[in-house]
Automatic annotation (TrEMBL):
Pfam families registered for this protein in UniProt: Abhydrolase_3
SUPFAM superfamilies: alpha/beta-Hydrolases (SSF53474)
All residue ranges annotated as the Alpha/beta hydrolase fold-3 domain in the record: 84-293
Protein name: Esterase
Annotated GO MF terms: hydrolase activity
Annotated keywords: Hydrolase
Database matches in PANTHER family: AB HYDROLASE SUPERFAMILY PROTEIN C4A8.06C, ALPHA_BETA HYDROLASE FOLD-3 DOMAIN-CONTAINING PROTEIN-RELATED
InterPro entries noted in UniProt: AB_hydrolase_3, AB_hydrolase_fold, GDXG_lipolytic_enzyme
Chain spans, region Disordered: 29-49
Superkingdom of origin: Bacteria
Lineage: Bacteria, Pseudomonadati, Pseudomonadota, Alphaproteobacteria, Acetobacterales
Amino acid sequence: MTETDLRQFVDPELRPLLDRLGPASLDISSLPEARAKRQPPPGMKDNLPALTTARLIPGMPDEPDVRILIIEPAAVSEKLRPAMLHIHGGGFVMGTPDSMTPTLRRWAVELDCVIVSVDYRLAPEHPFPAPLEDCYAALLWLAENASDLNIDAKRIGVAGESAGGGLAAGLALLTRQRGGPALVFQNLQYPMLDDRTVLAKPDIPGCGAFLWTPEMNVFGWKSYLGTEPGGEGISPFAAPARASSLHDLPPTYIGVGSIDLFLPEDLSYAMRLMQAGVPVELEVFPGAFHAFELDPRAGVTIRSSVRRLDAMKRAMLPLCSD
């Protein structure tokens, strides 16, 4: 089927977004331009009562410092707040936390929480484990500085989108293995979890046809892994779907579109989490392709945003009751 034929499976409200963005492609030659396009526009402001601060924190031993954004409600709280470590998306090869700042500021206010978003090193210049180690350094810093941030170190969750969702899932596995700070939830939006997807041909009409294609997926995984994806010996901390055990992981929310390339791997991961006794909330949005939230006015984006925020609120707010 041609791309025109496949558009019948796309939510009608999302089709204009495809016209605006044009054909989806990404490789090493187009990566600099793609990175530049993901930079937030200058002068982006809102009237939300939230504070945003950028700072450098220590990386892991023998690793460089890590830039983070700290986003918190402007109002002083007499109670300890919950906290969230946020990890941005971008196929492991592009993106910054700054592009997510409007959303994160809204989350901070509506959830009354402190958010730390990680500006982790990008592949292919910095393949695995560098990006994940940056995220782990931020998690350690968040827990160790709980008192200064007015947060409860026992009330930290992790959230991410796309590759950021994959890094969030990998981080949950890593901190479990290292005995690091315990997470109270993981909120994964169309997470990039399984490099073996490059070996599979999508068997759902329209799946993977838009925004993040199988060809782009090969490039993203190869850049992150530093080797051909889909083979033997890939670390489960890089590709969480390869983990042999998903026991003792935190309650999980997974949201994904019905024609997202990652739908099969996300459904499989959700099922395995449930089989391991992990509470899972799964949302599949009809007619939504990868990164559909680039159109904030579409009804499916609004529904997704509401449900994702509600899941985080339910994971956080009961913990705030003393």
